[in-house]
Structure formats: C-alpha cells, structure tokens
Amino acid sequence: MVKNVSISEVQNFWEKNPPFLGESEFKFGSAEFFANHTTTVLQDCFAGKLDRKTIPFCNIDEPILDAGCGIGFWTEIFVKKGFSKIFICDLTHTAITATLERIKLLGSKVTPAVMNVEALKYPDNFFSHVNCQGVIHHTPNPQNAIDEIYRVLAPGGTASISCYYKSPLFKIFVLSPLIGALLSKLGIGLRGRGREEIFQNRNIAEIVRMYDGKDNPIGNYYSRKEFKEMLNQYEIEQFYLHYFPIRQMRIKIPNKLHFLLDRYLGLMIYVTLRKPLQNKVSQA
Fold this sequence. Notes:
The chain is an alpha/beta fold. Helix content is about 35%, strand content about 15%.
C-alpha cells in the first residue's frame, strides 16, 4: 500500500495529464493524435508488433473489460479484433471522453463508466476477460485492484495485467553517475509534463514515479516475485517482458536490436492469468 496518497490525488493528476499529452504534434483528441498514439505504442512499447498474448482468447461476443482504459489504445485494438461486448472504465472523465471519441472514429460503440479499478461496480463473475495494462502501479492499493479484477472475472476467465518492472537496467543506472549525464548529452529525455530532466535524478523510485509526469503522485515498480505474491488467487499462465522505450532517442536503434531489448530488457512485466473454475479458498 502506498501511504499518504489518496485516490482523489491520483484522479486529479490524470484528469489534467492524460497519457501521451505533450508528446504528439497533433491536437489532443484529434484523429491524427490517436493515429500517432497507436503507431507510437506499437513501435515503442512492443518493438513494432503487438504481442498476441495480450489479446483475449475468449469468443468475440463475450463481455470483456478494459480496466483503466486511458486514452483507448487497447479498446481500439479490441474493436479492430472484432470484440462486440467491450466495457471500459477509468478513474477520469478525460480518459473516458477520449476513448469514446477514438472509438467513434472507428464507427463502433463500447459501454463506458468512470470508475476506480480498486472498487469496480460490476457484478461478480461477469467478464470473460479483463485487460489492465499499466494501471496498478498508479493505484494507492494495487492489491485491491488485483482482487477486484479477480472478483468480476467469470470462473475460467482470463486477465492480462502489466506494471513497471524492477529491471536490472535500473541497478546499472544507479551504479554509474555518468549515465544520466550521458543520456542528457545524447538528447535522450522525455517531453511534456515536467519530465525533461528526469534522468538527472539518481533515485530510481523517483525516476519511475516521474516517468508519467513530475507531479504524478504514484508510480511504483515491482520484481517478478513481488508481482507474483499479489496474484495468489489466480492461476498464472505466463510472465513476459516488453517496453524498451526508444522514441526520445536521437540515435537510431536497429529494429532487430530493439526487438531483443524489448523482449529481454523490457521495463514492463506482463502476466497472463486465469481465474480457477473453483475458488482456491473453497478448495482449501
């Protein structure tokens, strides 16, 4: 649990600082902005190709939830994959409005709700799949969010969850005070939301928090062991890594090298989960 940070503080920050704000040359909420965002996520977060493991394996007419939908990247993916019963929720009105505009451009509809992932208002055992990417590390009580996802999943249903990862790269960064200076000299930094001097910070926890904005109230990262301990109710199918960001670099990274860095030195850890057909507590 993150102390001294309320859910209203998290909500206020993300209302004013939605994802990708300040990073695109296009107007926030425009068709060009969303297209730019889609391309950037695919190239930067997945080295050019979306991982099939992040896509629901349920039938396209079964209900799925994009929990913490942000500005709608994943919702767009699910619409394009043909899923017809998509529910979205997010803590902020800004995110819901942006996602609805994005989906409208595709000529489709989804069922929206402004909602805290730590306290979902959906019935028990409702969804065949829940998608929750890059959300729990921004919540005051991540365990509550994980437990709520479990509750709303139908028995046998699946979930895909990701969070920031305690990569070995962070240890290297801390050990060498020259790395931050080198990154700045090479022009490697982050645009928007007060992040321009992020790599001058020597505190890794602070770098992770500041990654989404200087005033971001919460930004945690987890080891595989820490993440796994929060998932004890689920059947864990697979852990895997992605996200080696290169979009702010002025130097060109070859595609094959980026692919390897993404898969083996990714800064986000993903997990594919399944809710047991029988509750583990009742089995005991």
